[in-house]
Amino acid sequence: MIRPSPPAGGIAGWALPRSGPRGRGVVPGAQATVEEALAARGLELRHDLLIEHLHALQDSQGCLREGHLVALATLLRLAPVAVFETASFYAHFDILPDDAPAPPAVTLRVCQGLPCAMAGGESLLGTLRQAPPAGARVLAAPCMGACHRAPACAVGHALVEHATPEVVATALVQAPAAPEPPGFATYAAQGGYATLRGARAGHLVTGAMLAALTASGLRGLGGAGFPVARKWQSVLANPAPRHLVVNADEGEPGTVKDRHCLETDLHRVLEGMLLAAVAIDAEACWFYLRDEYPWLRHALAREIAALDAAGLLPMPVHLRRGAGAYICGEETALLESLEGRRGYPRHKPPFPGQTGLFGHPTLIHNVETLWWLPDILGTPDGAARYASAGRRGRRGQRLFSVSGRVRDPGVKRAPAGITARELIEEYAGGMLPGHRFVAYLPGGASGGILPERLADLPLDFGTLEAEGCFVGSGAVIVLSEQDDLAAAVRNLLGFFRDESCGQCTPCRVGTAKGARLLDAPAWDRALLEELAQAMADGSICGLGQAAMNPVRSLLRFFPEAVP
């Protein structure tokens, strides 16, 4: 049956044929603005570069205008909703209507992570909000990787540590100098890249690297602790092409170790990355760096170019920029972000080693894990030397980020299996004067809270789980009798509520529900435990599964502190 054509102008129930794309059209001049911003960065029109495109627009225009997003979607041949949903997912992008006033020229982001809150971050935020500097807006922000020099405030793209209103005012006039990592020439003069040259020349083959890693006992140091040798083997078991991804998106409150590695020994990380890439015969390397470290992004771009000029890049290395989403530290959410989408964690299996970036087998490593590789693989006794460094039968060393009520906070290179008490006394100078050790977080915001009486447990994978905690990324936050433990737990759960990606109901609804329950004058302990179990059982990724760990710890170990 042939349906007759509708009359001119249409009638109810009839659909006129489309004469153009659905939705709003491109605003005159918008496409030229977008093309100019992308050309200035040398960016191709590829879907996986969408977040880089958004950064280019935000940096050049001060915000993301709706008309520019439509123009970008047109250039990429994407539906506008695909661009809008990605842009709106990331906290560092400001989407505004075309006719809205531009945001202030400078944004002050005041860290509200637990170590900064303990050091006066909440008071700093309140003071700046009451009297914001001229031409600036003031926002609360999650952890910035300056927990050892709290409180922190980002003034535009400059990080201000030990921040006060006066220090922030000074930074608005003159930005503080950013740390400058040692360059290629310095590292090479100290014997750097000799191990990589040997691997490329065939003197250090993949089998020998795997044997050394197995003997060393090196585990992934981003939080999960999976044995590195087994991780490489799982990737090698799948056909090429393969990719290597560096996860430099540390955002766990209390964690600063990856920043430390990159600031003090950037090329050691890059050599570790290239050694791993050669071992798995990677087609390319992808370095995903959190947006809160702009000075490191500039240094990485410069030093990767120096490696290329020296002929030391066996494959392309792509530097990618995060956009303020903690969830992108989860390995599969990071892959989604690299592919130009929202950072939604994927269901596993398949695991990244089987089906990762662009559907190819992918090896994902944390910065610190790669930092150890030149030591372990660089000499015949490297693996044995690393393995023998642990305490209490544990193998290896690791970098602990220590913050809170200690005399000397910072990143501490210490043996695996060290206890929190030893870490505080031997490496962090002991407790601050006037503070008594009461509790500690062994693994950042998600690792739970333990009382001082359990401070003699080894800080290592598999030793704290019986207490409902874990060492994770090794972020140790030390609390004293002067800290309100219930307030600390509210801070931590508020962080997870704000950083939940929203994909799965247990986490999206559970973190919000939990935060509301903690605001009650009296906590409903039974309901909190039930909620925690439901989130642990039903959440897709570790964020939702571990978000209630601090609450459970408080209920279990500190009943006297529970309202």
Question: Nutshell version of this structure?
Answer:
By secondary structure, this protein is of the alpha/beta class. Helix content is 41%, strand content 13%.
Secondary-structure topology with pairs:
Layout: H1 30-41, H2 50-61, E1 64-65, H3 66-76, H4 80-89, E2 95-96, E3 106-111, H5 114-118, H6 121-130, E4 136-141, E5 153-155, E6 158-160, H7 165-173, H8 184-189, H9 194-200, H10 206-216, H11 228-236, E7 242-248, H12 257-279, E8 282-289, H13 294-309, E9 317-321, H14 331-338, E10 362-366, H15 367-377, H16 382-387, E11 397-404, E12 410-415, H17 420-427, E13 437-441, E14 450-451, E15 475-480, H18 485-499, H19 505-518, H20 525-538, H21 542-546, H22 549-557
Parallel strand pairs: 1-2, 3-4, 7-8, 7-10, 8-9, 11-15
Antiparallel strand pairs: 3-5, 5-6, 11-12, 13-14, 13-15
Quick one: CATH superfamily of the largest domain?
A: NADH-ubiquinone oxidoreductase 51kDa subunit
| Low-pLDDT regions | 1-21
- Which value, in Å, is the CA radius of gyration? 25 Å
Largest sheet: 5 strands, mixed
**Please, how many domains?**
5
Strand order within the widest beta sheet:
12-11-15-13-14
Mean pLDDT: 95
CATH class identity of the largest domain: Alpha Beta
Q: What is the CATH topology assignment of the largest domain? A: Rossmann fold
The name of the CATH architecture of the largest domain is 3-Layer(aba) Sandwich
* Beginning-to-end CA distance, first to last residue: 73 Å
Give the tally of β-strands: 15
Backbone shape? globular
The structural class is alpha/beta
Q: In percent terms, what proportion of residues is strand?
A: 5-15%
Helix content: 40-55%
Count every helix, treating DSSP H or I runs of 4 or more residues as helices.
Answer: 22
